[in-house]
Amino acid sequence: MQVILAGFNLDYEVINALRRSDPDAEALTPETISAAYARISRNPLPVNELRRIARKEVDAARRSNRNIVFEMGHSSVAEHAVFNIDVIGVSRLLVEEVEKFRLCSYTEKSQRYVLLKDDFVVPEEICGAGLEESFVDTVRLQNRFYHELYEALKVYVFEKNRGPASDSANHSTLEGWAKEDARYVISLATETQLGLTLNARNLELMLRRLAAHPLEEAREYGRRLFDSVRDVAPSLVRYTEATAFDSRTRPLLREKVQGFVEKWGKKKWEDKGTRMLAKRGNVSLVYATPDADERTVAGLLHSSSGLPMERCMVVASLMEREEKEEMIRAACRYMEVYDAPLREFEYTDIYFELVVSAACFAQLKRHRMATVISQDYDPGLGVVIPPSVQAVNMEGPFRRVIARTEETYEKVRKVNPVAAAYILTNAHQKRVILKVNAREFYHMVRLRADRHAQWDIRDTVDRMLSLGRRAMPLTLMLATGKDGFPALHRKCFPDNP
Q1: How does pLDDT run across 258-284, given as a tens digit for each residue?
Q2: Considering its fold, how many domains does the chain have in total?
Q3: What is the pLDDT of residue 118?
Q4: Same structural domain for residues 40 and 98?
Q5: Residue 88 shares a structural domain with residue 109
Q6: What is the signed CA dihedral for 447, 450, 453, 457, rounded to 10 degrees?
C-alpha cells in the first residue's frame, strides 16, 4: 500500500514567489492534478507517475482536460482543481446568493464577534434611480443607532452577568453578546468579507448563475471571480455565460405563479385539506415522512440482513413499537456527541416552513446539506426585536429606525424591487422552506439547540425539534444540543457502562 500526498493549497503570494524564482514553472496550476487523475481510469501507470507526466507537459494536460471535461462530459474531473478565494467588500445581501452553492466552503466575517464600522455597499441600481441620498442617509441612521445600541447593551450584559464580568477573560464573550443583538438594526447593504473554497466544477456553475442574477453587484462579483482564476486553470472553466435556463426560468415561474395565485389564492385553504401538520410560533411542520420511525427501522433491517427493501418494510410494519424502539436504540447506544447517526437515518425527511429574521437566516443557510429555499424579505412580516433591546428601553428608537428604513424601502421598491432588500435590516424577516433528513437534522440540532448558540436560531430550532419529535419520536430520541447530549444519553441508556 502507498498513500502519497499529491498536493495541497498554497497561499497565492507563495505561488507568485515561486513563479518569480522560476519563470518557466508552468506546472503551478491545479490543472495537472485534474489531468493526471482523469487518466487513472485508462492508463496503467501509477498515479504519481501520471502526475509527473502532467507536470512536464502542461499544454497536453490542458488539452486532455478540455477533451475529458467538456467533450466527453466527465465534469467530476474538474472537482480535483480547488481554489481559495478572498472576497472583500461585498454586501450581506450578496453573500446570501453566494452561499446558496452548497458544495463550496465558506468562512464569513461574523457580525456577532466583530464590532462593525460604517462600511456599506451603495448598489448601482440605487444610484441609477436617483435614490442614493435617501439610501445613504437611512443606512447612516441605522449605523449610528447600532453604535448607540451596542454601548447600552454592553452595560446591560455586563451588569446582568456580574460574576463572569469580574474575570477579564470573559469580556470578549460578553461584548459579543451585545454586538449580536445590536446588529439587528443594521442593513443587508453592510459590507462583509469571506474566505471561499471551491472546485472548478462548482466555480463554473457559480459563474453561470451569477451572470444571470438581476443584481449588478452579483454580476460584477461573477466577473471579478472569473478574472481571478481564468489564467490559472483555463482548461477547466469554459462556460461562464448565463444559459437560458439560468436567466429565464425564474422570471417565467414568477409570471405563471402570479396568474395562478390570482385565480386560486382566495380559495379557503381548508377546501383542499392544506392545513399545516403542526405549528409553534414562527415554525410550521409542513410534512414528515409517513411512519417515519418505521422507515428508519426498515433501513436498519436492510443494512444488517440479506432481505430486499420491500420485505424489510413489511417486517418493520409488523414489528411492535417496543421492537422498533429496540432497533433504533441499538443504532444509538454507543453514539457520542461527536458521532453522526447512521446513514439509515437519511431515509426519513421532514419539511418546515419558517418565518425568520435575516440574522437567523444568516446562520440557517450554513446548513448546506439541507434544502433551503426562501422568499424575498417582506416588511409585512414584521421584525424581530431582541429582548435585550426591550430590556434597555430602546425598543421605541429601534422601531423608529425600522419605520424610516421601510419608508426608504418603499421608495426603492417602486423603482427596483430586486434592489429594495439592501436597505432592510437584520431584524426583517422572510419565509423559508427547509427540508432535512433526520441525520442532518441531528447535526443542525446539536449546533443550534446548544446553550452556546445564538438565541434567535436556538429558539427556532428548539421549536423545530419539538415538532419533529411528534413525527419521529424514536428516530430523534437523541436529538439535542451538544450541551444536553450527555444527560439525554444517560437517560436513554442508564445501563451503559
Answers
A1: 888 888 876 655 555 556 678 899 999
A2: 3
A3: 86
A4: no
A5: yes
A6: 80
**CB-based contacts of 84, cutoff 8 Å, min separation 6:** 9, 12, 195, 196, 197
Query: Is the pLDDT score of 24 beyond 80?
Result: no
With CA atoms as reference, report the closest residue to 206 among 254, 230, 235, 241.
Answer: 241
Contacts of residue 245, defined as CB under 8 A and 6 or more positions apart, other chains included, come to none
Q: Is residue 177 a contact partner of residue 206, using CB atoms and an 8 Å limit? A: no
| DSSP 8-state symbol, 421 | G
Task: Among 1-15, 76-90, 369-383, 418-432, name the one with the lowest average pLDDT.
Answer: 1-15
Q: Is residue 35 part of a domain?
A: yes
Which strands make up the sheet holding 105-108, listed edge to edge?
82-91, 191-199, 105-108
pTM: 0.91
Indicate the residue among 345, 360, 387 that finishes a domain.
345
Out of 205, 226, 241, a domain closes at 241
Mean pLDDT value across the chain: 92
Q: What is the rounded (10 degree) CA torsion for 202, 208, 209, 214? A: 150
Q: Are the C-beta atoms of residues 462 and 452 closer than 8 Å to each other?
A: no
| pLDDT, position 31 | 86
Round the CA-based radius of gyration of the chain to a whole number and report it: 26
Pair 178, 204 in one domain: yes
483 in a structural domain: no
**Residue in 96, 178, 140, 145 with CA at minimum distance from that of residue 388:** 178
Query: In CATH, what number is assigned to the domain containing residue 236?
Result: 3.30.1360.170
Contact 469, 476 (CB under 8 A): yes
Q: Are residues 71 and 89 in the same domain?
A: no
The cell for 433 is 422552506
pLDDT band (50, 70, 90) for residue 387: very high
The one-letter amino acid at 102: R
Question: Is 235 in the same domain as 91?
Answer: yes
CA distances for 1 relative to 4, 10, 53, 63, angstroms = 10, 27, 22, 31
Q: Residues 187, 424: contact at Cβ < 8 Å?
A: yes
374 falls within a domain: no
Tell which residue, 110, 135, 134, has the closest CA to residue 121. Answer: 135
- Same domain (yes/no): 159, 294: no
CA distances from 75 to 34, 204, 237 (A): 11, 11, 11
Q: What is the mean pLDDT of residues 420-430?
A: 98
Burial of 136 (0-12, 13-18, 19+ CB in 10 A): middle
Whether pLDDT at 441 is above 90: yes
- Please check whether residues 99 and 233 belong to one and the same domain: yes
Cell numbers linked to 194: 469571506
Whether 326 is covered by a domain: the verdict is yes
Cβ contacts of residue 14 below 8 Å, gap of 6+?
Answer: none
For residue 136, give its domain range: 84-241
Residues 168 and 137 in one domain: yes
